[in-house]
C-alpha cells in the first residue's frame, strides 16, 4: 500500500511535507473560524442594541463594525488568495509528488511497491512507438494495475523484457536503448535509494 511520500532534508531527517502542510492549514483555519465567530457575535450584540436605539443606528453600527471587521481580517483576506493558489498547485501536483521522472522531456511516473519498481503505462505512449502489440503484452504478464493505485503499469522487469524483445526484432532503435539504459541505471536505482513510499 502506498503511503505519504517522505522526503529527506539535507541533514538526512525524514519528514512528510504533505502532512506538515495540512497541519499548518488546519491550525490556521481553526483560529480564523474562532475569530470570525467572536466578531460575528459582537456584531450581533451591537445590531441588537442598535435596534432599540432608533432607526438610523442599525446602518451606522453595520458600517462601523463592518469596517472594523474588514480591518481586523485584512491580513487574512490578503493571505487567502495566495494560500488557495498554493493549495490548488499542490493538489494538482500531488499525483506526481515523489514519483516524477523525465526522459527526453516525457513525464514518467515510477512507483516503488514492495521493492518492485512499477512504471505508469500511460506515460510510455510517446516513448514506446508503436504501442505494445497483443503478442508483446501477452509476453509481459507483470503488466497490470499498480498495487495500491488506479494506474495501469508495467513492472521494471516486464518493461525491460519488452524493450529487449523490440531491440532484438528491430535492430535496436537508439531511443529504446537509451530508455532501457536510463531506466536501469538512473531512474530505478534512484527510486530505490529514496526513503520507501510503501509500508
What can you see in these coordinates?
- Helices cover 57% and strands 14% of the residues.
- It is an alpha+beta fold and 199 residues long.
- It folds into 2 domains: 7-96; 100-193, no CATH class.
- Strands 3-4-5-7-6 form a 5-stranded antiparallel beta sheet. Strands 1-2 form a two-stranded antiparallel ribbon.
- A hairpin with a 6-residue loop joins β6 (144-145) and β7.
- α1 packs antiparallel against α2 (57-72).
- The longest helix is centred in the N-terminal third of the chain and has 37 residues, at 17-53.
- The radius of gyration is 28 Å and the shape is rod-shaped.
- The termini are close together.
Describe this structure in a few short sentences.
With 199 residues, the chain is α+β, with helices and mostly antiparallel strands. The protein is built from 6 helices and 7 strands, in the order E-E-H-H-H-E-E-E-H-E-E-H-H.
